[in-house]
Structures are given as C-alpha cells and as structure tokens.
Write a structure and sequence with these properties.
Shape: globular
CATH topology of the largest domain: Rossmann fold
CATH architecture of the largest domain: 3-Layer(aba) Sandwich
Distance between the termini: 30 Å
Structural class: alpha/beta
CATH superfamily of the largest domain: NAD(P)-binding Rossmann-like Domain
CATH class of the largest domain: Alpha Beta
Mean pLDDT: 96
Low-confidence stretches: none
Strand content: 15-25%
Number of domains: 2
Number of strands: 15
Largest sheet: 8 strands, mixed
Strand order of the largest sheet: 3-2-1-4-5-6-14-15
Order of helices and strands: EHEHEHEHEHEHEHEHEHEEEEHHHEEH
Length: about 375
Amino acid sequence: MIVGIPKEIKNNENRVSLTPAGAHELVQRGHTVYVQHTAGINSGFSDEEYEKVGARILPTIEDVYAIADMIIKVKEPIECEYNLIRKGQLVFTYFHFACDKELTEAMMRSGSVCLAYETVTDRQGGLPLLIPMSEVAGRMSTQEGARFLEKPQGGRGILLGGVPGVKPAKVLVLGGGIVGTSAALMAAGLGADVTICDISLPRLRQLSEFMPKNVKTLFSSGHNIEQELPVTDLVIGAVLIPGAKAPHLITRPMLKLMKKGTVLVDVAIDQGGCFETSHPTTHADPIYEVDGIIHYCVANIPGAVPCTSTLALTNATLPYAVKLADLGWEKACESDPGLKNGLNIVDGKIVFPAVAEAFGWKI
C-alpha cells in the first residue's frame, strides 16, 4: 500500500503522525511511505531520518494526498485539505466529527473512508488511541491551568500548591477517566486541594483507593458542582462520551458562582466542550474571558509538546496502521471489531451512530 504522511497545518500543531521508526516498519513490510518535506521537523525528526529508513520525501501536501492510498494524520483535515481527499482514499486520524458539521459534510462529499482514532476500541471496550493523548492533555491541563491562575496571565494570582501558612488552590476535575485522573494526579503532585467528580460510583471507589490524600472524590451532579464552584480556583473539564458531543456541565449562569479570575480548562473542546461558554482556541491565542472567568479551550493541547506527544501517539497507532496497510481497511476491520468501531464515514455515508445523532440525522 502507498502510505502518505502530510505535514500538520492546524494552528501550532507540531506533531507528526508517523516516526521514522514507524516508517521503517511499514517499508520493511513492503509498503511505500511518502512523507511531506519537513513533516517531522517540529517533533525532532528530519527528512534525512525518514529517507534513511526507506521513506520518500515529497515537496508539497498536494503531492502526498495525490499519491497515497492511505493518509495517516494527527488532527482532522482543515478546509484547505478538503478538496485534496479523494473517493476511496482511507484517512486515519482524529476527526471528532460530532462537533464539526462542516468537516462531516466535507468528508461525506469526498467519498473517502474516514477511520477515527477516537472511536477505535480494544477488547475491554477502552479507547487505545485516545489514551496516550488523554494522558498528555490531562497533565498539561493542570500545567496550563496553573499558568493562567497567575495574575499577569489574567488569573486570580493563586499558586497551585500554596506555601506553608497559606492554603493551596482548590482544583475541581470533572470526569474520572484518563484525562481527569492524569489532571488530578498532576494537581495533587503540585500540592493542590483536589476534588475529582464522576457519575460512576465504581470508578470513584477505584480513584479513592489510589489517589493521594489531597484528592477527594465527589459524585458528579449539577447540585454538587454548584456547591463546589464558589470555593474553586481551577476547573478542569475532562468529560468524554466516545464519538458524541460532550454534555455542558457548567452553564453560563453558573459562572456567576465563581470568583473573578477563576480558570476553566476545557479538555473536552474537541467534542464540543463541557462548558456552555466554551469555544475552540489555539496555542497562539489560548484564552478568553467570560463574566470575569478565564477560559482555556485549546483544541490540540498535546501539540505544544510534540516530542513527547508524537512518540506516545505513534506507539499506539502504529500496530493499527500496519494492519490497515497489510490487509486493506475492509479486511482489517472484518478481522478486528475494535478497529471497525473506528469507521465513521464510508463512501459518503455516516456509519457511526453517535455522529449521526449529533446532527439529528439517520444512518
């Protein structure tokens, strides 16, 4: 199979979808790998490193899309890429269709096969291609939240861990999955007073067993969240419904319950955001203010640490990319029901129910 690796062009997206080691694996199995010039440079990989393992370098993104049977990316295609994707071409990447109608309709028009990282499942029903980036995003959500709590950044001027004689900041984490757990552990490690919420009592029991003593668990309900907001300095939204739009756990009226300069970090922004007042931002312009509350809603948080993120992501995606290249998407999905769950759009039709439901469409 001919595999194409275009350079990511979303704002401040510095990751690359395949490392030289990954390219070597595909080439050794008889596949041809084309990499766009400088695609890996921001993750620390030069064109020469790809060429040494047998990959070929192409000068433009148009060249890569034109020649490849399978495109492997990190982030969803943006508008200038829509017309480069052709009928029958397999695109393997994060899509997050449920919160982007324009992208969904463009991919339907293209007639391509859209296989989304975020809905591929493993035998236990987990999301193996979301986990590594969720771990990065969770850790970074605390790191960025701490940064924007600083007064020069617009925050309340609170040090997350406090100092002897001064109480630490209070952090509220909404969601006890991979993102929320990673965020809570990072915040706890910095010395914050952390509360983590979830609707699953079994998950809360698990969290209470291994979390540090400065992390408390709380059942996630509207009432409980409202009770926490007046005394919270940093809220991290880490709610996920696989492939579907995230629910709004904090509404606009609830902002008035918080102190001015409180920071909201919405890690669920790729799925529409879990705060009503959220809208996507970029690393170049990461925050905005609503009713005195700082919102951080960067849609590709791990893109800021590409040397870590690229390695973590490709560790997870490469076995699936190899299977797709070896067998073709149809046979690969027949042999692996979890990979089949990654199919979102095939030949102009939505095949993933949660995406159709997000727009009120029927499959």
